[in-house]
Each structure stands twice: as structure tokens, then as C-alpha cells.
Design a protein that fits this description.
With about 120 residues, this protein is mainly α. The protein has a three-stranded antiparallel sheet with strand order 1-2-3. The radius of gyration is 16 Å and the shape is elongated. The N and C termini lie far apart (about 35 Å).
């Protein structure tokens, strides 16, 4: 039997609503971040994230789960943790609100919090 580690990601209570928001985030954020509009973009994007329990991906309170599952004896398996896959997918979807010029500056940064 395998279980996820103790630092596993717990879905916000509004998971279905958040999933909808993430899949449509490009349509909900009218201002894409560029070099000139950071305050406007930040206000808009922060409100959207807070309203849908997603701000934790940016401020670090939605911790990334362990990538691999562990068994009852805390032995790490080679099986990928489904919670990790889900967390990573949701985290990466937040970058769709950036312009090409900003995207070129964040190449290599791994998470929304790092960005």
C-alpha cells in the first residue's frame, strides 16, 4: 500500500471552480503582464487568484507534494504521486497571463512562486 508523504498538497475546497478558472484563465485575465503594466496586472491577477483559492501557488502556502509516493515504512517508490502531478499542472497553468517578453525573462524558473 502506498501513501503520499506528509507534505502532500490538499486541494482547496472550491476545487471544481478552481479547475474551471485554470482552464479558462487566459480568458479571465484581460491584462497580460508586460514591462509597463505590472501594478495593474498584479491587482487583477491577485484578485482572481484569491477569489478562487489559487493564491497559495504564488505565496507558497499550497506546498508542492513529494514527487514520488512512499510506502508504510517511508520507503520512496518509483511511482509518481498523483497529487504532485495535479499540483504541478495547476501551478504551471498560471503563467498563461504573461506576455512573450516577460516569458523570455522567466525561462528556467520552475514554479509560480519562484516566478
Amino acid at each position: 500500500m502506498t501513501t503520499s508523504s506528509s507534505s502532500s498538497f490538499t486541494m482547496p475546497s472550491s476545487q471544481n471552480n478552481s479547475t474551471f478558472v485554470i482552464s479558462n484563465i487566459i480568458n479571465l485575465v484581460y491584462v497580460k503582464l508586460d514591462r509597463e503594466n505590472c501594478p495593474l496586472w498584479r491587482h487583477q491577477f491577485s484578485a482572481l487568484l484569491r477569489g478562487h483559492d489559487l493564491y497559495g501557488f504564488v505565496d507558497g502556502t499550497h506546498h508542492c507534494p513529494e514527487k514520488h509516493l512512499t510506502d508504510n515504512t517511508r520507503v520512496v517508490s518509483t511511482k509518481i504521486n498523483p497529487a504532485y502531478v495535479n499540483w504541478h499542472r495547476r501551478d504551471q497553468s498560471l503563467v498563461f497571463t504573461l506576455t512573450e517578453s516577460i516569458l523570455s525573462q522567466i525561462v528556467g524558473l520552475g514554479t509560480s512562486q519562484t516566478i
